[in-house]
Amino acid sequence: MTVSGTDGTTRRASAVPRQTAGSPVESVLPELRALSWETGIRARADAGLLSVFAELPRLVGKALGISWRADRVRTSVAAVATVGAGVMAAFGLLATQRVLVELFAGGPTPHRVTAALPALGVLTVATGIRAGVGITIGYAQNTLAPRVSREVERGLFEVTTKVRLDAFDEDAFADDMERASRGTDSAIDLVQGAMNLFAGLVSLLAVTVAVIVIHPLLLPALLVATVPNAWASLRAGHQRYQTYTAGSVRRRRLWILHQLMAERVSAPELRSYGLRQFLLDQYDRVMRVETDIQIALARRVTTTTSIGSVIGGLATGVVYGLLGVLLLDGQIPLSAAATCVIAVQTAQRALSTVTFQIDRIYTDGQHFGDYTGFMARAVDYLPDAGGGVAVAPLRELAVRGVGLSYPDRDTPAVNDVTLTIQSGQTVAFVGENGSGKSTLAAMIAALRAPSRGSIEWNGQQLAEYDPAGLRARIAVVTQDYHKWPFTAATNIAIGDAEATPQQERIERAAERAVAHEMIRDLPHGYETLLDRTFAKGQDLSGGQWQRITAARGFLRDADLLIMDEPSSALDARAEDALFQAIRDRRGRATTILITHRLANVRHADRIFVLHNGALIESGTHDELMTTAGRYAELFALQAAGYQSGRSCA
């Protein structure tokens, strides 16, 4: 088997070159562009430890702000409980030291044990309270997480569902939105990381205070015994992040291979073209490189942590030697030395928590920064509030000198189009692919704002009307319909979601779209779930989905119905029935029909012919055929195809 290289050459599949981060291939293959969840990790890899510590206070403040807005009570409980846990830790160490003082004192053993009982009781109570406080902290964090998620995620969806449709034409907006969606998950991790960091710091502070109270000379010993391991943990984390970002291209390639080999949509072609071995070879090639890199990383991390452990062990030995000297000189009691050993172990555990959370907070903070940045920039894409004028039934729709240009194109999609549609008319927009038909319809439906010109409903511009009222009088059936993962009934009902239609209305709309019998034949009728992702879900063919979407448009029975290629996948009988339902609207409601099948627009009151975004012809079918222009040419080509088919038969 051969594959085409990115340079246009052809080579055997087994000779596909190894890809590395930063290679030209990354800019050529779209699947190799950076993924949203890599941005924070890359930022952490590029940042030095000093930069991380400098950024930490701001990120922690941001996390606490999110938590406070989501639930003030639980945030307060978690904070107070964390401080309480630290206080109990300090009391526990002091009580431990007091127990040891009594046990190491002179006199008979029973007397020493009896003397130690009060301190032992305090230790037991402190340990019990600390355990209870730990449960409280865990409960507060666990119940806070869904509230933080709701607060952040709903804010994102409020923006993404409200921005203008043209926002999605901007590459920068799409990339921002993808990264922002990762930021919603990071908000929870950022809040929990900040709380865990706070808990670790409180624990360290408690140990420090207890050690100073026991004997000030023990504080330097504590630092010497714990800092080396903390440095090693941070350094090892930095190595992991650097290796992770260097392998981003490989991971994206593996991610694509996972999808290709284990998803339903690719399964038929994988088998029909015999791609199994080819994809497995690709997987093996990438994984061999990844495995070697992970092994090398394991060696580096092991070396770093081992050095930290050795230095920490030597430092701990020095501390214990120092304790011995102090004991021999009588500068500290034996109980203080024993307590110091416990304090060192407690501090090491707390530092381990702190170092882990520092990396986590920095990484998640970058992701959440993507979210906040997107939310700030998305304000520029919000639609105007509208004039609030009530929308009367349609009498006349006027398009005056309308044009629209997409940001990534040199030529306008629609250019200086002027036309008028009267109430009750059925009109058609026809033309070749890319002529601007769908874009013009989207502007009429108030889904896009014209770059120039105006569109008027009963003599007033669309922007002057109440947006919700305007939408209620317009129904749109798009050619790029979405397959909503709901039941058949719900898929139709969302055509008039604000009115919560009853079953009778849903079925009437389905009958007009030639979908009623098809739906009744499904395993659960109108309650059949139309998505195979879920249990007992069903697949529909393209033609069946078009019937569902047409029913969605008929349901509202709006003043203006726009149908964009409503029959491209329908069989002849269903197509004829659908267009009969469209013709039934003539005289009582307005319909704009967009189709390439010109035989279906012969009965339209008016046909508008577009070419390269401009309106070049208009009239009835007979008038346009007499003119012998572009419409007549296209109609003749289609008619000749049917005639050729009959002669061949």
From TrEMBL:
Residues 1-22 are annotated as: Disordered. Signal peptide: none annotated. It is found in: Cell membrane. Residues 1-12 have a biased composition (Polar residues). It comes from the Bacteria. One of its GO terms (molecular function) is ATP binding. This is ABC transporter ATP-binding protein. It comes from Rugosimonospora acidiphila.
